[in-house]
Design goal:
By secondary structure, this protein is of the alpha/beta class. The protein has 2 domains: about 160 residues, Rossmann fold, CATH 3.40.50; about 120 residues, Riboflavin kinase-like (Elongation Factor Tu (Ef-tu), domain 3, Beta Barrel), CATH 2.40.30.30. The strands form 4 sheets. The protein has a 6-stranded parallel β-sheet with strand order 1-4-3-2-5-8, covered by helices on one side. The longest helix has 22 residues. The radius of gyration is 22 Å and the shape is elongated.
Length: about 325
């Protein structure tokens, strides 16, 4: 997959670009609803012997449009989004810089510049997609703005139960610890990756060595607590338990939560390595224990519960 970053105005030449079927949207999470939009574009491209593309934006529009928002944490950060789109068979990814200039474009100018001038011949969008200044363009106006240059497919909302699948709903579930339900809407486990950094080594002292992960602050993490996780490392998958929190038994003044993972049946040195965590099941909230002994007894119970969970899941 070829990744192309664009800022308004871009300088790509129409006659040098292949005819393309493209899905357009922010696609945070690339959940089941997003995947339907993207797969439709990929299938249209194959059917019409075109290239497939995804047109997305970065950073999140709220960072530019809302004065009280300075930073957004993503369900699917940009690096993860790129890898997932490649697995979905997308040929090219256009990442449009969302800035004040872009937000000021009138709907017709947006379509002219970022759809027609990219040689898009078939555009696929979700039912709630909007574009142009103050979102004045929407799926009802795309045909009028297309200048009869491209066709449009609009994907109706995808539901789970009686509610539409949305990134907002997934965020709510993660913040309440309902990772299994969030994973159902995502169509896959929530994934977080990080580099193993040196920690305080208390886990090793109490018989449960942990890998302390340095995770980008762009990543949306679930609720504070203890989780059943799977760890992907060098093409191998391990079961384990992760602690997301402040480690209150030993630390009283930590400002930011940390992620520590104990990988079952694995004892090799991991410093400097990248681990990928799949979050599968919320076990319990973080607790401050009166002693290391109380903590160890609880961790032993956590391990038993998580091993039972994965044995039952398989």
């Amino acid at each position: 997959m070829r990744t192309i970053k664009l800022t308004y105005p871009h300088t790509l030449l129409l006659d040098e670009l292949p005819e393309t079927a493209a899905a357009i949207g922010f696609f945070d999470g690339i959940h089941e609803g997003h995947q339907k939009v993207i797969k439709t574009a990929v299938n249209q491209a194959k059917y019409n012997n075109m290239e497939s593309a995804v047109i997305t934006f970065h950073p999140h529009p709220s960072v530019v449009l809302k004065q009280d928002v300075e930073h957004v944490q993503y369900i699917t950060p940009l690096q993860e989004k790129q890898q997932m789109l490649q697995r979905l068979g997308v040929d090219r990814l256009y990442i449009i810089t969302f800035n004040k200039e872009l937000s000021s474009l009138e709907p017709q100018s947006f379509i002219d510049h970022f759809i027609i001038q990219l040689n898009i011949k078939h555009l696929v969008a979700g039912f709630d997609f909007s574009y142009g200044h103050k979102g004045k363009g929407n799926v009802q106006t795309i045909d009028a703005h297309s200048r009869d240059v491209f066709d449009v497919t609009v994907i109706d909302q995808v539901q789970a139960g009686d509610r539409k699948i949305s990134s907002t709903r997934i965020r709510e579930l993660l913040q309440s610890g309902e990772v299994e339900r969030a994973n159902e809407l995502l169509g896959r486990p929530l994934i977080v990756r990080g580099i193993v950094k040196e920690g305080d080594k208390r886990g090793r002292e109490i018989g449960y060595p942990t890998a302390n992960l340095a995770i980008s602050n762009d990543v949306l993490l679930p609720r504070i607590g203890i989780y059943a996780v799977k760890v992907l490392f060098k093409n191998e998958v391990y079961e384990g338990m992760a602690s997301l929190g402040y480690n209150p038994t030993f630390t009283a003044d930590r400002d930011e939560p940390i992620v520590e993972v104990n990988i079952f049946d694995y004892n090799n040195d991991l410093y400097g390595e990248e681990l990928v965590l799949e979050w599968h099941h919320y076990i319990r909230d973080e607790i401050k224990f009166n002693s290391a002994g109380e903590l160890i007894r609880q961790i032993e119970e956590d391990e038993k519960q998580i091993r039972r969970y994965f044995a039952h899941e398989s």
